[in-house]
Specification:
Largest sheet of chain A: 5 strands, parallel
GO molecular function (chains A, B): oxidoreductase activity
Number of domains of chain A: 3
Largest interface: A-B, 64 and 64 residues
CATH architecture of the largest domain in chain A: 3-Layer(bba) Sandwich
Keywords (chains A, B): FAD, Flavoprotein, Oxidoreductase, Redox-active center
Cofactor (chains A, B): FAD
CATH class of the largest domain in chain A: Alpha Beta
Structural class of chain A: alpha/beta
Strand content of chain A: 25-35%
Oligomer: homodimer
InterPro entries (chains A, B): FAD-bd_OxRdtase, FAD/NAD-bd_sf, FAD/NAD-binding_dom, FAD/NAD-linked_Rdtase_dimer_sf, Pyr_nucl-diS_OxRdtase_dimer
Distance between the termini of chain A: 54 Å
Strand order of the largest sheet of chain A: 3-2-1-7-18
Protein name (chains A, B): NADH oxidase
Chain lengths: ~475, ~475
């Protein structure tokens, strides 16, 4: 056991989960968390709902306040940036509020997260153009959307943490009457709903042919129909080249190869990139561009761990290292590493890339391999079926169309992945498929699952069972 | 292959599922279904919602009309009762509308269902006392509840099938101003909701200390609180001895050992009993009192199968024969037997006794072994934990308390069962546990499941994951 502290770089989901677990499991040992920003451990996934106004206060999105971290025995240093790591001497160099210093570590967790990608789109620096990766972005966006007569920095509820200058700038500006969302992934779809809560024209640009690509075409099409019904204008297959600014440096248009659209605001959500630069010379970085780890989250360097949006993680179905930025795997991996460092080894688990998203009144879910080409690349011989069934007994009020796609491997008959879309309790049903994947169940075994049935909640054959029945019939 | 037809006794879920599957799989062979009643293949589980008025027409509850059965190539004979079975000569004796006849069979499926138990409670034959086991019971009850000025047999929407005399009798009666429900199982709880839709005092009597016994005490208590909030008077631990009638033979009171309550109507839902008498000399009946079967639904007699509410089925967790009256296993077993008889053997599957029920605004689910004593009897060393978590991210509007109990075996760490109760998408989450049981996952494996997370649908750690985490911590 090392006398030196457990040092965590990054005070978000993975970092603070690790520190919390460690301080409970090894209360006599020190844990220091360096966070370069002012915010710690907040719910990224909640920011669209803050912008929309459903979540009132920015601080509602904090999972752990600095005070709570301290109570848990965590030495939390905000506005402290780790600028160098020496894995031979086990020491990190920190730029803090009182200057630079060195901090030795016994074990180190790199939980530096990811950042929003905006290239190759020019103009993201324009006034009125945003990415959404952090509470200050969310604060600025909501300040901009609210009528200047009603907007104030205080009303955002960010307390001492918020970038008040930036928020005040947008609060004073006239609200936009149109907005372009660049990118039709989770954030794009969630922000379409958020912007629609205000009185403005919402345009969504998606480079590829469908929104929510990772959910597959069937879900994408259903969501597109629903977005249009709710007044969102879709520009599918239209790659945005740049945002154009006026003389004052404010966004005035979105420019595509064959199309230009005047807008007052733009939000770019075209993806994230792992923050690996701090340690890219000291530890192995995988083909995904994220830090490579073993089953316990350890990197190629002794006593150096990585977790969350900066690290790879093993895929439940393929077994290959994969990179994603989902909340649960980050929390879980952080927690496991905290326990491991405390002396009780715990694997970080695998990730099936299960995700669920709300698009106005539609609920969508996906898990595992849903793209047949990706499944073939992973060495499977995939076969897929899509069915539509009711969410409840047909005679019971409120039954809604629920569309399920299941993918299986023809050789082993193992279920590889699935997606679901519908308006009535659809998203939660993907957990049945996620559980089946983890247990490596075959299609026949899924078909024979004894799932719950009652008229208000499900037809006799749950849509997932019906999908398994139809898929099995085709194999 | 036999030249004689596949004969099915009973035209409900199991019987017609078997006949439908058989006629698709072996279109050149004959299948005859004898149904002693006028109704076929209807949704038992929907009857409380018909009584409540949420389902408008009785015929909405038919899963398959006689015409549809004929279109599928099924020779359906309603009002034909099979009164004897000769398994040596492979022939059944049928009392039909045109007299008695013998029908040879190649294979026979006994799907005779179950009947409502009313003993040891006297007085169920009184006017204004009901059991709820069939559409005619549902029709009579609703006719009674509706104001005589508005009530008519036609408005029940039962078409040619309904027992019009009985319905007309109750339609003409003054509506009750109070009702006693005897029995706090599924039907009792669902009927409490149904009766409450009318303007009357609802009393629920339960012999044991809690309603919904098979869901365990935690769920029972939550439901009791909710029922009381919704105006239902609970009489827990009060065994009803008899229903008391007036001189005209009408229900006037419920009599308990230490308590008597005047009521205008009573509904007895204290359980069901399998209908095995037709073949109890010819095939083995198990300890549960239902017909014993093998993995393919075959009884101890050659070419004789049994499925549905009259048959046993293997328990997913214990492997022991069990008896239940759930919809999905009956449909599944029937379908499997239809396929097996057609020459493509398919196991009937196992049953975890997964069930879900709605109690006003509460959703409840249970699966596997939730009773510790039953788990010990089955040879396990059970350990159980109950947690309460939010159904959504805490900051997202609409998050509701969700209480999960998980039971596991201390030796193998295998999950044995669980229950759930809450008002927001709670019931469907039991399917995660049901899937885990079927796959024999351990508590640690459940804790590491990659379930879906998005603020509107789940906290980062789904309540099922939190339960697994806490349970594992205690093992």
């Amino acid at each position: 056991m090392s006398a030196e502290p457990f040092v965590v770089v990054g005070g978000d989901a993975a970092g603070l989960s690790a520190a919390s677990k460690f301080s409970r499991a090894a209360p006599d040992r020190d844990v220091i968390v360096f966070e370069r920003g002012r915010w710690v451990s907040y719910a990224h996934c909640g920011t669209p709902y803050f912008v929309k106004g459903e979540v009132e206060q920015l601080t509602d999105l904090l999972s752990l306040s600095p005070e709570q971290a301290t109570e848990r025995g965590i030495d939390l240093r905000r506005e402290h940036e780790v600028v160098a790591v020496d894995t031979d001497d086990r020491v990190v160099t920190v730029d803090g509020t009182d200057g630079q210093f060195e901090q030795p570590y016994g074990d180190l967790l790199v939980a530096t997260g990811a950042r929003a990608v905006s290239d190759p789109i020019e103009g993201v620096e324009l006034d009125g153009a945003f990415t959404l990766h952090g509470l200050d972005d969310a604060a600025a966006l909501r300040a901009y959307l609210i009528d200047p007569a009603d907007a104030s920095v205080e009303a955002l509820g960010g307390g001492e943490f918020v970038d008040a200058t930036r928020a005040a700038h947008f609060a004073a500006m006239e609200s936009p009457s149109s907005v372009a969302i660049v990118g039709g992934g989770f954030v794009g779809v969630e922000m379409a709903e958020a912007f629609s809560a205000y009185d403005l024209d919402v345009h969504l640009f998606q480079r590829s042919g469908h929104v929510l690509q990772s959910f597959g075409e069937t879900v994408g099409e259903k969501v597109e129909t629903h977005l249009r019904e709710r007044g969102v204008t879709l520009h599918l297959g239209e790659p945005v080249e740049r945002l154009q600014g006026d003389d004052a440096g404010r966004v005035e248009a979105v420019v595509c190869p064959e199309h230009e659209l005047e807008v007052d605001a733009a939000m770019v959500g075209i993806g994230l990139r792992p923050n690996v630069e701090l340690v890219s010379e000291q530890v192995d970085v995988g083909e995904t561009g994220a830090i490579a780890i073993d089953d316990y989250g350890q990197t190629s360097a002794d006593h150096v761990y990585a977790a969350g949006d900066c690290a790879e993680i093993e895929h439940t179905v393929t077994g290959a290292p994969t990179w994603n930025t989902l909340g649960l795997p980050a929390n879980r991996a952080g927690r496991a590493i905290g326990q491991t460092v405390a002396g009780d080894p715990e694997p970080v688990g695998t990730v099936a890339e299960t995700s669920v998203v709300k698009a106005f009144d539609l609920e969508c879910g996906r898990t595992g391999l849903t793209d047949l080409e990706a499944a073939r690349d992973a060495g499977f011989d995939p076969v897929s079926k899509t069915i539509t069934a009711g969410s409840r007994s047909g005679y019971y009020p409120g039954s809604a169309e629920t569309t399920v796609t299941l993918v299986a491997d023809r050789d082993t008959e193992r279920v590889l992945g699935g997606s679901i879309v519908g308006s009535d309790r659809a998203a939660v049903r993907i957990d049945t498929v996620a559980t089946a994947l983890a247990a490596e169940l075959t299609v026949a075994e899924v078909e024979r699952l004894d799932l719950g049935y009652a008229p208000p909640f499900s037809p006799v054959w749950d849509p997932v069972l019906t999908a398994a029945k139809v898929l099995r019939g085709s194999m």
